[in-house]
Design brief:
Elements lengths: L9 H4 L1 H9 L1 H12 L8 E3 L2 H8 L3 H13 L3 E4 L4 E4 L2 H5 L9 H11 L7 H12 L5 H40 L10 H28 L7 H12 L4 H15 L12
Antiparallel strand pairs: 1-3, 2-3
Helix pairs in contact: 2-3, 3-5, 4-5, 10-11, 10-12
């Protein structure tokens, strides 16, 4: 959790500040919250569910969603609804600086943070905006490595299926030579089999995340579909098991023992 945040006096009189002012007091309030809330990071990109915003600002869920969309429309921020990550567009420049030197120790820290982010809808925009300022290494390198690994897995799977198909053909030939007539063999739905394997892998990873959540929080959430589906949805968006474990560990440190926030330590 950050101990402080910078808010420029230009927030009130800049062109963007005037746009926010036209949206009303709730928009000004929410914009300040996005800059100063305890979950924010200096990069301006961080995990922040709308339900948590509503809880901490005392706005209704619907009002929070509506005002957040207004702020996105004027490009004050971007929000990935699937991953529940927000990007306050100019925050990194305000909290860090407009241009770092290559020798600055923060360059390495920012790149590590950036490379650890899931595949968010606004990540390419972030890279384009801050690549020169922070000497960002393109995240595409990490994505290509992941795609290459997935391609290798697919090739291995296809080879296994081909070998199984050849064995099946040989078996059918043997049966035909004995009986004199072919047996009717149903076609195998390979896409269905592949999807089953992927679902099984996701479920196994979700169980690992749920077990880690129980260990860290001292809870006993059951591996019911209602719990596992929530975690699997995160994994499908590109988050890894390690991403989930890091968030659980971080939020447990911040929220455990806090009567207002501990209820959010859940799947």
């Amino acid at each position: 959790m950050r101990e402080y945040a910078k808010v420029s006096p230009q927030f009130w009189i800049s062109e963007q500040g005037r746009k926010i002012k036209k949206l009303g007091l709730e928009a000004q309030f929410l914009a300040l919250y996005l800059i100063t809330n305890p979950h924010a990071t200096m990069t301006g990109v961080y995990y922040l569910p709308i339900a948590l915003i509503a809880h901490e600002t005392a706005l209704s869920f619907d009002k929070t969603s509506a005002v957040l969309k207004q702020l996105c429309d004027i490009q004050f921020c971007c929000y990935d609804e699937t991953a529940e990550y927000v990007w306050v567009c100019d925050m990194a420049a305000d909290q860090i600086c407009k241009q770092l030197k290559l020798t600055d120790n923060r360059v390495k820290s920012i790149n590590e943070t950036y490379s650890g982010l899931p595949n968010l809808s606004f990540l390419k925009q972030y890279y384009k905006k801050y690549q020169s300022a922070f000497f960002l290494k393109e995240k595409k390198l990490f994505e290509e490595a992941s795609e290459h690994l997935e391609s290798q897995e697919q090739e291995q799977y296809q080879e296994q299926e081909q070998d199984q198909g050849q064995d099946q053909d040989q078996k059918q030939d043997q049966e035909l030579s004995i009986s004199g007539k072919p047996d009717i063999v149903p076609l195998k739905d390979f896409s269905f089999e592949k999807n089953k394997k992927q679902q099984a892998l996701l479920k196994s990873q979700a169980l690992e995340v749920l077990d880690f959540l129980n260990q860290k929080t001292g809870r006993a959430y059951r591996p019911a579909d209602s719990n596992l589906k929530l975690i699997m949805a995160r994994l499908k968006t590109g988050a890894t098991v390690m991403d989930c474990r890091q968030i659980i560990a971080k939020k447990t440190r911040e929220w455990k023992g806090n009567p207002m926030m501990s209820e959010y330590l859940r799947p």
